[in-house]
Amino acid sequence: SDVCSSDLHLLAKYHPDKLNKLSSDKKSEKLDQIQLIRLAGEILTNADKKKLYDLEQKTIRTNKERVISGC
User: Fold this and answer.
1) Do residues 4 and 43 touch, judged by C-beta distance below 8 A?
2) Distance (Å, rounded) from C-alpha 39 to C-alpha 31?
């Protein structure tokens, strides 16, 4: 699928072996990005997890709108 293909491309880009020359802060930042990429792929390829994610995002948006409108 397109998600898996994109996932693999990004994981190759941020592979730990390619991060050796970076400072520890930058390396840590890139490793965090790898975890986010994997999590996104896991959510997008699992229908139940995607439904839950979408519901959580809708709840967050609704709460932000309430705060902004003063309700």
Assistant:
1) no
2) 12
